[in-house]
Amino acid sequence: MHQTILVTGATGTVGREVVKQLSMLDGIRVRAGVHSLIKGENLRRLPGVEVVEMEFTDPESLHAAFTHADKVFMVTPFAQDQTEMARTLVDEARKAGVKHIVKLSALGAGEEPGIQLGRWHREIERYIEQSGIPYTFLRPASFMQNFDNYNSETIKQEGKIYMPCGDGKVSYIDTRDIAAVAVEVLTGTGHEGQVYDLTGPEALSVDEVADTISLVTGKPVLFVDVPEENARAAMQQQHVPDWMADALLELYSVHRAGYSSGVTSRVEELTGRKPHSFRQFVKEHKDCFV
């Protein structure tokens, strides 16, 4: 019997990988929820993937996306009103009779008082818990792919990574490993009510990240530790909203203090294989840095 799994935020870094990995499985109908059908065009090429437009302010689009969906992999955008968006999705899932929500959360979301990013995620988690829908929360560390998404241009052009992180270490995770866990949870059994902290196999400072990129690519890369006030000024020049700058700088301060350096074995326990190392990631994404 076929199962229909809806992936919201399907064009994002994690959502896209979840769609890709689910599309490789027999007996799964993948419904990719996207904000723009144009952006989701590439997903149509994957076998068994249906692309649907989801607009949070359009109840009809949400109803169409959730109709006959058995399970949902829920990703909400990094936005000031993300908790409101999430409540809308959970309410629609309840109405549609969804049997399991797997939510992409963040490492540290259960900490008290925590940081703003964690508090947003925890508020959404609580709403899901209260909905009565079986759930699983995935709380990953910072993504390796962020060095591609946000730092690749300065690495290519200047051979430098600018970040306000000091020598704090972070247990960066490859989003392919997050997706592999998501697929296991969505298609397996016994994960309801569980919270999984997901990390890569090691914690690295950004200085060590730069050294790894240098070693693998042969291109000298240096880490430049940016003072917080300079980082804020740079964000303002790029028209980053104040709420977003505050949240990001708070996250960087946690990294700087070394609070993001814990390593778990969850990826291997749940998927049966070790997570990708940062060295492997760079080796497979050389073009992003050279």
UniProtKB/TrEMBL annotation:
It comes from the Bacteria. InterPro entries: Ergot_Alk_Oxidoreductase, NAD(P)-bd_dom_sf, NmrA-like. CDD domains: TMR_SDR_a (cd05269). SUPFAM superfamilies: NAD(P)-binding Rossmann-fold domains (SSF51735). Residues 2-257 form the NmrA-like domain. This is SDR family oxidoreductase.
